[in-house]
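::Encoded backbone::
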Amino acid sequence: MDTVEGKKGGSVLLTLHFISSSFMLAFLRDRNTAQSVQDIFESLYSLLGKEQFQRLFPVLLGDNGSEFSNPQAIEYAPDSTQRTRVYYCDPAAPYQKGALENNHSLIRRVLPKGTSFNQLEQDDVTLMMNHINSYAREKLANKTPYDALRFFHGQDVLDKLGAKPIPPNEVTLRPNLLKK
């Protein structure tokens, strides 16, 4: 898990990267706070249910950003059930989550550094991630992250997460994807 910032002080994205499939989720947050991260995990836990959540998120690896400063609130459900484990990368070691950083470069094709995220809605972010997750990867034998996550976790999970495949000839990883 990580954060992608727009303009300083504005909206940000929480990204969740699945290593085996290169699939990535992104969630728009108004501010970069620990509470906004907790709210997303509460929502995912409610949406997926305990078993699916634990299969998808047995372990979360993040950096030491302030938004991840309350690991217990992420690790435990409101009923005190442990739902995941949170671990942290070493300081100044982004290479420890290199695959996630590579996927961030795809986000930056659509939302270049310095772009404000304040005008975005979650539907815009979901559309962008559908395009990114439909971009075939050599490391996946030229399959898409969408296909790989479907193989590992099933169509039901993708449907619950609002993920939809984009035909290969329609995948757009440019800023004009989100122009309204």
